[in-house]
Design brief:
Blueprint: E1 2-11, E2 14-24, E3 29-33, H1 40-47, E4 55-60, E5 63-64, H2 69-74, E6 76-79, H3 91-101, H4 106-119, H5 135-147, E7 153-157, H6 165-180, E8 184-188, H7 192-198, E9 201-206, E10 209-214, H8 216-223, H9 229-250
Parallel strand pairs: 3-8, 3-9, 6-7, 7-8
Antiparallel strand pairs: 1-2, 1-4, 4-5, 9-10
Helix pairs in contact: 3-4, 3-5, 8-9
Length: 251
């Protein structure tokens, strides 16, 4: 459902993403890990069609994000790490606006919105302007609205930012439920616990390159380190950093 073919993104002399190829099939829950400035958010923005690759190709649900953007976006939902909401609207107005953007019938908007409002515990806030709500509540509104049209592909950057433990659990449960029903989930996070608990596969991006992808056990075998996922992650990124230093010295 998500396909990246040798994707490169340059910003001047900086290579933010360096030749990433990756396929995420229907219904897979993929968690992407990486240090700060590894290229995770840049990769996500190319999947979402917000920035254009310098080279390579991205497809979502079989549609090229650059040449068939409307078809790709119709099947996808994207929640950035700091989502934009229309502050003067109430949550209920925002849900209806989002549904109308995706050309949903009013009856379907009503049914889907009420189900998500109940799951995300948003009833007390429905008539209040979004601008007066807490960051965690706004995050729940953003995620719920993104799920409203029942997307085939769900892409989210740092989903747990601002969420208390209870609502973080709600988000995890809903995303896992949707994934089991066939929605492809692509999550970028710094929280290793999310990957440890939720992922079918884990991808590690470091210095713009995809250095590892596989199950938790695959990554442990590749790193040669047993125990917690954190140990494998630290070992793999350290190995990649050492290789990069050696190549730089040779050059």
């Amino acid at each position: 459902m998500i396909e990246l073919f040798d994707v490169v993104k340059r910003f001047g002399d900086l290579v933010a993403v360096n030749g990433i190829s990756l396929t995420v099939p229907r219904g897979e829950f993929l968690v992407v890990l990486g240090p700060n400035a590894a290229g995770k958010t840049t990769t996500i923005k190319m999947i979402a069609g917000l920035i254009k690759p310098s080279s390579g190709k991205v497809r979502v649900a079989g549609f090229d994000v650059q040449t068939e953007p409307l078809e790709a976006r119709r099947r996808m939902a994207y929640v950035p790490d700091f989502p934009f909401l229309y502050d003067k609207l109430t949550p209920w107005e925002f849900f209806r606006f989002t549904g109308q953007l995706f050309r949903m019938e009013e009856s379907r908007i009503q049914t889907a919105a009420r189900e998500l409002i109940a799951r995300f515990n948003l009833e007390p806030y429905l008539a209040k302007p979004i601008e007066g709500l807490s960051h965690g509540t706004r995050q729940r509104i953003a995620i719920a609205s993104a799920l409203l049209h029942d997307p085939e592909v769900f892409v989210i950057d740092e989903p747990m930012v601002g969420l208390d433990p209870h609502h973080a659990r709600v988000v995890k449960d809903i995303l896992k439920e949707r994934s089991k029903r066939g929605m492809t989930v692509f999550v970028s996070t710094h929280q290793l616990s999310v990957a440890e608990e939720m992922a079918d596969r884990i991808a590690i991006i470091h210095q713009g390159r995809l250095i590892a992808v596989g199950t938790r056990d695959d990554l442990r075998r590749q790193s040669g380190v047993a125990g917690a996922l954190e140990n494998a992650f630290l070992s793999l990124t350290a190995q990649e950093a050492n290789l990069a230093e050696e190549h730089a010295a040779l050059r």
